[in-house]
């Protein structure tokens, strides 16, 4: 009987008792043949050197519709009866699930209505409509859109397509696990971002079922944003623990309550669920863009964030050959601008400082000289004489500058302090 280690404990995991089986995942793979992309696996030389292990990326950011969500959505909808298809489908999402359902509906000739919150990114709304789905904006959160989608389903008979809490959805997402084992047969560790848990549940089911055939134990680790981390709490309590508040730039995994079905699988089959900070996520996104030429959304970059912050290596030692699932690439360009700035700041390559000065000639010239002598490049200056917090004769100055790392930032700050200034780092 297969077993898995989680948090140092040996947990019996009878696969036949779980809600999704290997045969269902293999059937899902057949259904998806010719429908979705068999996404490539890319080797990361830069991260391999940094980690001391071979690191590969499973590039679901290059999937049709821009994320893995198309897999589960198509499998769920392809198995509907003709009567169900005639009633159409309805879903709620801020982006990736919406596009996956819309794409699947277009291929299957099914009418689709998607409820999206008012704050959903315009590119995601446009992409969903471009697939032919009817988009309705409702509420300010995904939960509000979800409630409206369920109401519509009850009123019209349309089939509600849940983003993660469904056997067919989980089986469809599990096909990624089968592909990873074929593409990187010597994999030792697989790292996956987690929101509701459908992807991690499906992938872990496929991988655990194949371990006996492979003759090895594969470590499977989920990753959540630390301010949207319902799984660690739920696993510790052995029950679903909803979060009171969710706040993260990784909107694709901003889920406040695990799915019941995914949770029942993950608690048995997954080794651990780690968390990463917002700065970790931003740093990873920049790394993927600069060093690997990959555009990945924040939710898709969390496995890389978990590797880069070093905590996994501290916890487990050698990770062996690693595969990180880059789950999606649907990033709003406006969010990308903010994340890039945050990522550069977290890496010490961009710094904004604020100072109070005496309003007299030569102060700004002195500051400029100090910054120049320490090889930083000023990109913006905001000089304010009037404001509620300013005294007569004071000036508030904010300076944006390009820097070359944390040590360089510290050197610039020290040089300013030596001249009597009191800079405060804004970010």
Automatic annotation (TrEMBL):
Homology family? Belongs to the serine/threonine dehydratase family.
Task: List the Gene Ontology MF annotations in alphabetical order.
Answer: L-serine ammonia-lyase activity; pyridoxal phosphate binding; threonine deaminase activity
The protein's role, per its UniProt record: Catalyzes the anaerobic formation of alpha-ketobutyrate and ammonia from threonine in a two-step reaction. The first step involved a dehydration of threonine and a production of enamine intermediates (aminocrotonate), which tautomerizes to its imine form (iminobutyrate). Both intermediates are unstable and short-lived. The second step is the nonenzymatic hydrolysis of the enamine/imine intermediates to form 2-ketobutyrate and free ammonia. In the low water environment of the cell, the second step is accelerated by RidA.
* Reactions this protein catalyses: L-threonine = 2-oxobutanoate + NH4(+)
Q: Tell me where in this chain the ACT domain is found.
A: 352-427
The pathway noted for it is:
Amino-acid degradation; L-threonine degradation via propanoate pathway; propanoate from L-threonine: step 1/4
Question: Could you tell me which Pfam families the record lists for this protein?
Answer: ACT_4, PALP
Query: What's the name of the protein?
Result: L-threonine dehydratase catabolic TdcB
* Naturally occurring in which organism (per UniProt): Rothia aeria F0474
- One example of a Gene Ontology biological process annotation: L-serine catabolic process
Q: Which Gene3D superfamilies match?
A: 3.30.70.260, 3.40.50.1100
Cite the InterPro entries for this sequence: ACT_dom, ACT_ThrD-II-like, Ser/Thr_Dehydratase, Ser/Thr_deHydtase_PyrdxlP-BS, Thr_deHydtase_catblc, TrpB-like_PALP, TrpB-like_PALP_sf
């Amino acid at each position: 009987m297969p077993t898995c280690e989680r948090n140092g404990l040996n947990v019996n995991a009878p696969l036949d008792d779980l809600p999704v089986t290997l045969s269902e995942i293999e059937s899902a793979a057949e259904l998806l043949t010719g429908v979705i992309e068999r996404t490539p696996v890319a080797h990361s030389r830069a991260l391999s050197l940094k980690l001391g292990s071979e690191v590969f990326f499973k590039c679901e950011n290059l999937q049709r519709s821009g994320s893995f969500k198309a897999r589960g959505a198509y499998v769920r909808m392809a198995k509907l009866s003709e009567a169900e298809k005639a009633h159409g489908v309805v879903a709620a999402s801020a982006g990736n699930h919406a596009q996956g359902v819309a794409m699947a509906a277009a291929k299957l000739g099914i009418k689709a209505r998607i409820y999206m919150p008012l704050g959903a990114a315009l590119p995601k709304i446009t992409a969903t409509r471009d697939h032919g789905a009817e988009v309705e904006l409702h509420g300010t959160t995904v939960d509000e859109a979800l409630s409206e989608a369920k109401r519509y389903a009850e009123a019209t008979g349309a089939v509600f397509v849940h983003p993660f809490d469904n056997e067919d959805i989980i089986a469809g997402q599990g096909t990624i696990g089968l592909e990873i084992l074929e593409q990187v047969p010597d994999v030792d560790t697989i790292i996956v971002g987690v929101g509701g848990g459908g992807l991690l549940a499906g992938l872990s089911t496929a991988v655990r079922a194949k371990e006996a055939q492979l003759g090895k134990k594969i470590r499977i680790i989920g990753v959540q944003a630390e301010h949207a981390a319902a799984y660690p709490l739920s696993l510790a309590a052995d029950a679903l623990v909803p979060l009171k508040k969710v706040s993260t730039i990784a909107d694709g995994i901003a889920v406040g309550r695990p799915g019941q079905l995914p949770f029942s699988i993950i608690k048995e089959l997954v080794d651990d669920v780690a968390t990463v900070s917002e700065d970790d996520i931003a740093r990873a996104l920049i790394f993927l863009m600069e060093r690997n030429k990959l555009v990945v959304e924040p939710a898709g970059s969390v496995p890389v964030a978990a590797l880069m912050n070093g905590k996994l290596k501290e916890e487990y030692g050698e990770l062996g050959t690693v595969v990180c699932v880059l789950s999606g690439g649907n990033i709003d360009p406006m969010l990308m601008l903010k994340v890039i700035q945050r990522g550069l700041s977290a890496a010490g390559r961009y710094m904004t400082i604020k100072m109070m000065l005496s309003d007299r000639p030569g102060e700004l010239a002195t500051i400029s000289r100090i910054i120049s002598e320490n090889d930083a490049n000023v990109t913006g200056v905001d000089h304010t004489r009037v404001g509620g917090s300013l005294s007569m004769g004071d000036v508030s100055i904010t300076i944006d500058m390009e820097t070359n790392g944390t040590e360089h930032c510290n050197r610039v700050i020290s040089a300013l302090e030596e001249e009597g200034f009191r800079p405060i780092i804004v970010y």
